[in-house]
Amino acid sequence: MSSNIKLKQGQVIKNYKELCSLLDLEVKDGNSKIAQMKEIERFYKLRKDKYKLIVDEVYSEPLLKVDGRVNNGGHIGNTKYDDLMDKIIINLLITYDGYIEESYSSLIDYYFDFFTPEYKKLFDMGYRRYAKLNKMSSGLVMTYQQKIKGVIETALETSLERLQRNGIITYSNEVKINNEEFADKKMQTLISKTEQKVYDELNMTPFDRSIPSKNKQFKKQVCNYLDIWTYYNVYVIKLKNRKIQEVEDDEEELKQRFIKSVVDATKRKTSKGKDGKYKPYSYGKYAWEIDKLTKLLWKLPDGYISEYDAKLLLAGKDISNTEEQQKEHEISNSDIENYNTYYDYGVQDLQDNIPF
Question: How many domains does the chain divide into?
Fold first, then answer.
């Protein structure tokens, strides 16, 4: 569509066909019509009144085009979530005057409305204490926590990459020193080498840092070597065009898809046993715990019914009687103790470690 063809603010257009005639465009139908209208609405704010179209505003500059194709970006791909995260990021940037500079944890805690206060409690106390408090397997809680971070962080960075390629934002990953300045390349290299040194000295892995007390010990030693008091990773995200309009997002649908991905990934978790690899959380005895953890941590989407509850409903059971469900599906103390011991010896898939 040519940007030099102008409609007038307040103009009333009889119908879609007349709109096409005024703009010298081909009349289309189906998905082609939908795509064409999205393109037109980059230039004009249109309001529908039955078949009529009213021009509420003529934009001085066309809105940036958000490419929502699920395969946009080649190997990076994000087909599970379409452009749902892209739209939320655009609207967040508009809300915060086009600039966000935050760590991953701050984005989750203060910007995205995905989780209940239980999520922060889990990170503050660590998966072992949280599991004990809620009478769950610590191995399951640890895995679920890892999968949440893996799913959301991957979706976030895929969206940031796509938005940057489409010219909507610029973004970078930086290291913030003492809450004041960004580390230069030399300092980043020094931090990386110092971290490796401390891992060796403390006989730790990134996996161990999912326990708050161990992470605190690790960070303190790194900071002592570097003569700083804190450092952390941040996303620096800038909106290129401050005049871009808010887009219609669907956070409820995105949460629905995130929850499914996390639950499925938890069930697919592979561990090594005496008889080879197996998937511990795919067994029915963990179904109630996975469902409980989902309901504790997530702000559930409107009308959400879990796969677990759906099966109970189909079986004619009362899903409101959670105490009865727990008795029916509870893992024995010996099972929990054996599984926790198994994980304490460090037998786990290192690819699933929580990165910091």
Answer: 3
Does residue 302 form part of some domain? yes
Interior/surface letters 323-338, b for 16+ CB within 10 angstroms, e for the rest: eebeeebebeeeebee
d(CA 305, CA 4): 50
| Shared-domain flag, residues 261 and 339 | yes
By CB atoms closer than 10 A (0-12, 13-18, 19+), residue 71 is exposed
Determine, yes or no, domain membership for 131.
Answer: no
Residue 323 located in a structural domain: yes
- Round to whole Å and give the CA distance between 137 and 335: 9
Q: In what order do the strands lie in the sheet with 44-49?
A: 12-13, 52-58, 44-49
Q: Give 168: exposed, middle or buried? Use CB within 10 Å, 0-12, 13-18, 19+.
A: buried
216 in any annotated domain: yes
Residue range 250-262, pLDDT digits in tens = 999 999 999 999 9
**Rg over CA atoms, the chain:** 25
Domain that holds residue 188: 182-224
pLDDT of residue 5: 55
The neighbouring-strand residues paired with 175 are 233
Q: What whole-number distance in Å separates Cα of residue 168 and Cα of residue 161? A: 10
DSSP class per residue in 204-244: --GGGGGSHHHHHHHHHHHHHHHT-S-EEEEEEEEES-TTP
Predicted model pTM: 0.69
**Residue 297 token pair:** 């941590």
Beta strands in 37-128 (DSSP E): 44-49, 52-58, 99-102
**At which residue do the structure tokens 């990021």 appear?**
89
CB atoms within 10 A of CB 302: 8
Amino acid at the residue 244: I
Do 298 and 344 belong to one domain?
Answer: yes
CA atoms of 306 and 328, how far apart (whole Å): 18
Q: Are residues 259 and 218 in the same domain?
A: no
In the predicted structure, residue 340 carries a pLDDT above the cut 50: no
Sign of the Cα torsion 5, 9, 11, 15 reads positive
